[in-house]
Amino acid sequence: MTEALEDAAKHAGASIFDHDYSIARTYALSMQLLSRGEEPVDERARMLFPLLACLAPGTPIDSLLTRRVAQAHGDEGDVEALALAVARLVELSLLDPARGSLDGDVVIHPIVADYVRWFVGGERFRTGLTVVVRAVNQLFPPSPEHFWQILTARADSKTELLSPAREAHARAVFSRAELLATQGERSALGIALGDLCFVRCEVDEARNYYRCALESREQSVAAQVDEDAQVDEDAQVEMLSVAHGRLGNLHLFAGQVRDALQAYQRALSLIEEQLVSDPANGRWLGRMVVHLMLVGDASRACGDTSAAMDAYGRSFDVARTC
User: Fold this and answer.
1) Which residues form a coiled coil (predicted)?
2) How far is CA 100 from CA 14, 59, 103, 104, in A?
3) What is the domain range of residue 70?
4) pLDDT tens for residues 262-295?
């Protein structure tokens, strides 16, 4: 389809409306053919196509990422079955082989992706987007100290590298995830992208991602409380404390020691609130030890030796009870 669209755009005297109309008709015909298919490959292709449309258009989608997306949706089909579904979408010109990439990599044309999102509709699109955010989250390690594993090629490594294309997909999905009513998954992706920028010393960009992650998590908590839903409070507080802690690390790295101290203190307060109802929880006690040490480090950097000693002492006392 990519070649056909490019050729259509070059026709002398063709207007944007003619171009869009031809794309719409091609898309409608392809989707009609796909919807008629009754084979398992057609069913899998129908499941996969709107999910891939959530990724960055015009950017190669590798076969492993496609498999992650399918698995996040609950499809446990084998590699061959998934490859056949992708081939079916290529056959119908809904996807194109990625130029200059590995065999099996595909791209979706930007205008086609827009049509898919429009055709799928609001709620179904948001459901699919949540699945894709969850899949993209799996591309990143849990903490910054492990990011070298996805950024450095090693012959003996089984870790999947974060290619420029995968990074582009992660950033695009994060931007689109603003549409989600529940922001929990987006918050985790924001922290991962912030970590990525942090290890590259891209301070301003890392700060923006961390702040977006924090806002997303706070929105998620507020939305669930408003709906009187069953909230996994441990998970919510853990992500909030992680976001505050990451911001603190960034401020400390940038020499903004008082901002770092405030961020660490906010994270510590959240942890202490959890321990009020469950004072013997080893996981939260362990986090308290770490954040008391961070508060101590930031206090010392601010020149407040007394507060630093107090935080270090409390950390030592809590550590002895763990």
Assistant:
1) none
2) 30, 12, 9, 11
3) 1-120
4) 999 999 999 998 888 888 888 899 999 999 999 9
